[in-house]
Structures are given as structure tokens and as C-alpha cells.
Amino acid sequence: ASPTDNVLVDWSFGRQGPTELAVPVNTTLVFEWASAFHSVVSVSPTEFAQCSGTFVSSTFSGQAIQGPAVGPMSVKYKLEQPGSLFVACTLAGGLHCTLGNMRINVTVFEPTTTLQTTTTTTP
């Protein structure tokens, strides 16, 4: 992905997409779902790992990128800092996160420039 790319994230219950992603700074994640109520919430690493069946959106430590909304939805979130972002759908007490596979761990990295070098040998 180039530094200005959009990366589509299927945010549907039962999603088949990866739960880990690595992208460069300034990538925009686009969370899309066609129907049903879902949320896009930044959560802690522990909350991400546990997807506890007892929590509700308001108990998460992170921020709501998108609160509960019915689809069709397309939610854009630009990643402007390097680091890790843990995102989950917090609806149904965590069932969307666990049973629906609606969580993703995004590693955001600084792009590096690749230098081309040539080696010449003299006989």
C-alpha cells in the first residue's frame, strides 16, 4: 500500500478478512457493512484479545470511531501516527467481536525509502 491508499475492511458479521493488518502512516481504513447495526471502536489490546461477552460499548477504554449505526455504511479512519490500533465491533456484549470475527489489529509503520545500490567489480 502506498502512503495515500485506502484499505477496505469488510465489517460484516462473520467477516472472512484478516484480523491483523500492517499499513504505512497516512493510510485510510474504510470499514464497510451492508446492513445490520455495527460499531467501529478503538479498544485496548486486552479488550481486543478477550472480546469479553460481558462488555458494552460504553465500557471500552478507547474511542468510538463510529458509534452503533445501521448499514449500508462506509466509515473512513485515517491512520496518521505509527503504532498499533486495535478495533472491534462492541455490539451484542462482544458477540460481534467473537462470533462475528469483527475485530482487527492494525500496525501502522513509517514508510522507508529503499535505496538502490549497484556494485561494480574491476577485474
Global mean pLDDT: 83
Number of strands: 8
Q: Beta-strand percentage?
A: 35-45%
- Class from secondary-structure proportions: mainly beta
Which strand order do you get reading across the main beta sheet?
2-8-7-4-5
Unreliable stretches = 53-59
Radius of gyration (CA) equals: 18 Å
What does this molecule look like?
With 123 residues, this protein is mostly beta strands. The chain has helices spanning 45-50, 95-98; strands at 6-10, 20-24, 28-33, 37-43, 64-70, 73-78, 83-88, 103-109. The chain has a five-stranded mixed sheet. The chain has a three-stranded mixed sheet with strand order 1-3-6, with no helix packed on it.
Could you provide a short overview of the structure?
By secondary structure, the protein is mainly β. The protein has helices spanning 45-50, 95-98; strands at residues 6-10, 20-24, 28-33, 37-43, 64-70, 73-78, 83-88, 103-109.
